[in-house]
Write a structure and sequence with these properties.
single chain; Arc Repressor Mutant, subunit A; WH_DNA-bd_sf; seven-stranded parallel beta sheet; three-stranded antiparallel beta sheet; 2 domains; Rossmann fold; alpha/beta; transcription; elongated
């Protein structure tokens, strides 16, 4: 097996990501010592990994995205249903055109959606999610970010309250991408908190088109507050519909929004 000093750039970068899987950060000097390379080479490795959306560079080194990007809901884990969320996000991104003004909902699905917008040009992102705003600011050079005002919800990293609703009431978007905690044919899309229901409804009302991003693991589940009905939407993006629950619900709706099944 080759020593770390003999590793190719790809192998060295893989080694760096393994390091960051166990530790919250890595410094340029750590890389220099570990791999016996110059500071210039170490920085090039970090630049390459950042361009791929795998880490975020900070002064003197880098931090892991999965550790540095605090998620808006602490009960949501960035590593839960990753494949489903990435597939939904990638499909949702195909619905975005260059120049669009987007509303991106709070939470991990919205976060993965923001990560899928790397190739979009001259877009504007409206969000109340501090993690999404932070990611877009550092990693989406062709995106402008509008962060809604309001109070940071205790123990979370999203903005809430009357000021948030007031800010959103003055804005209009081309497309809104929202998520939910559950979907039931009899109750629509539901969420745990009353404010979440109110702001999601306003996201959809103040956008030309509205899209729901939800994995099928949330089908036939109901939370406390209804945030949307099928007829409020232009499209629903799912990772699958194995039991035909969403298909049947759309067929019985008035507006028949388009169902996008992520591959």
């Amino acid at each position: 097996m080759a020593s770390t000093s003999d590793l190719s750039p790809a192998e060295r970068q893989r080694f760096i990501m393994n390091w960051l899987a166990e530790k919250p950060n890595i410094s340029v000097s750590d890389i220099v010592r570990r791999f016996s390379v110059s500071e210039v080479t170490a920085r090039h490795d970090l630049i390459s990994l950042e361009s791929e959306g795998k880490l975020r560079r900070v002064r003197g080194g880098a931090v892991s995205l999965s550790r540095s990007n605090a998620i808006s809901y602490p009960e949501e884990r960035i590593n839960v249903q990753v494949e489903a969320k990435e597939a939904i996000a990638a499909t949702a991104a195909t619905l975005v055109d260059d120049g669009d003004v987007l509303v991106i909902d709070i939470g991990t699905t919205g976060f993965y959606f923001a990560k899928a917008l790397m190739d979009k040009r001259e877009i504007t992102i409206i969000t109340g999610d501090l993690a999404i705003a932070n990611y877009a600011s550092f990693n989406l050079p062709n995106a402008s970010v509008v962060l809604l005002g309001g109070s940071v919800r205790k123990g979370h990293l999203y903005l809430a309250g009357a000021l948030t609703l007031d800010c959103m009431s003055k804005l209009h978007a081309d497309k809104a991408f929202v998520s939910a905690d559950g979907f039931h044919p009899d109750h629509g899309f539901t969420v745990e908190h009353d404010f979440s229901a109110m702001i999601k409804h306003m996201y959809l009302t103040n956008s030309n088109q509205g899209y729901m991003m939800v994995d099928q693991g949330k089908f036939n589940k109901t939370s406390f507050y209804q945030s949307a009905q099928i007829d409020d939407l232009d499209g629903i993006i799912v990772d699958g519909d194995d039991e035909g629950i969403m298909t049947a619900a759309i067929e019985s709706s008035r507006s028949h929004p388009k169902l996008y099944i992520a591959k």
